Amino acid sequence: MIDKLSWIAVYPELVLLIMACVIALVDLGVKTPGRTLTYLLSMMTLAVVAAMEASYALGGQTFYGFGNMVVVDPMGSWLKCFSSITLMVTVVYGRPYAAGRDMLRGGEFFTLSLFALLGMFVMISGHNFLVLYMGLELMTLCSYALVALRRDDARATEAAMKYFVLGALASGFLLYGLSMLYGATGSLDINEVFKAIADRQVKHQVLVFGLVFIVAGLAFKLGAVPFHMWLPDVYHGAPTAVTLIIGGAPQLAAFAMCIRLLVEGLLPLALDWQQMLVLLAIGSLLIGNLAAVAQTNLKRMLAFSTISQMGFLLLGLLAGVVSGNPINPLTTESAYGAAMFYALTYVLTTLGAFGIILLLARAGHESEEIVDLAGLNQRSPLYAGVMAMAMFSLAGLPPMVGFYAKLGVLQALISSGQTSYVMLAVFAVMMSLIGAFYYLRIVKVMYFDAPLSHNAQPVSAPADARIVLAINGALILALGIFPSGLMTLCAQSIKSIVTSLGS
Fold this sequence. Notes:
Layout: H1 4-9, H2 11-26, H3 36-59, E1 63-65, E2 70-72, H4 74-100, H5 108-125, H6 129-147, H7 154-185, H8 190-198, H9 204-222, H10 230-237, H11 240-247, H12 249-265, H13 270-293, H14 298-318, E3 321-322, E4 325-326, H15 329-360, H16 376-379, H17 381-395, H18 401-415, H19 419-448, H20 463-481, H21 484-499
Antiparallel strand pairs: 1-2, 3-4
């Protein structure tokens, strides 16, 4: 008999699942080219689910369901709320693009996106190894199908194959690592695994062996070096609307999975996974920034930019623990809160950058080369302004929100008092200086270069997309001027996790 609390824990997931199935059936009778009814039902579903998750988060309670396999806590609820909003914005930006490329012959673009979001929800709420893995597979299988949605596009098909093969390999790594931990601890429950490791009931060598595979699987999902090979090809080859689906909300789910596994489950092994995260962060910052400098394609540049941004996120994840132990609850909350703030602001900025690429695209032309942005300010000051704010934010320049995101991570590293962490902070700043070059190059092209002949005409977009884009740009600036509210929300969301470790 399933208790009432278990059903309450998964109400948003049930609503999302039922509505995704209903939308898939309703879409069979939709004949309009833009799938207007399917679009409106999808947006309504996402809005309702986001509101439900926000109400859970504001309640501030932590409770478990289905025999501790599912957890509802402020961090998870906020991440699911923001993931839903992210997908709403993605669909608004991507619908005109998809309609112009014959991707809306059916409603798969909408239904697969909803099922991918359901997978993210399961990843974020999972408190059991099998539940986490099921959520991950649901999300990635939908992502593979979305990348291949343009069946007649050879580049998209190639990207889907690369994504599928490498994704299956990474999933195998993660599953093998989880099976090693299950074999060593005798439990799939994250709390039970934490207790077994903390009580030193298991041989350390066995745990570390499984941990290596888990970190490798997580690094692939984040796109960290050396598991980044899929990212530039998939970002470039996938239809741009799908690229934004892959590069947006899934990053929040991957962050949640890192917290669930590394912090809630494997914190007693922090001394081991921290060393791995250091190498991943250094490699991501170095290779991501250096490779981005050489790119002429905007989507590939943003792919390598994502790799470098994930390096910063990993620095935040490792800053909460020193010598394998939390420094003190306040510092640990601050570090993981800074990492969560970084993930949220990165997704917000990515939405703005890819939104511009999507809205500039037109029939027969993708507008994804850097030169395609030449003279954009003359054609649309709004588009150029939002893109400039997104680039300034990714570069970490004040007063954009990206500056405070980077500053929060650097403060977490420096406040640890460890020389090695301070050196990592200095290295991250140096890499950010390199990154500033290719971000500011975009701004220079938009404002100072003459538009190309085939890009001279004014740009246009549906009213809903223009409104969302303006709000997107305003948030990048407003959260940079007033960052304390979101920072406090992130720190408070993490607090319940830190205080309940091992309980």
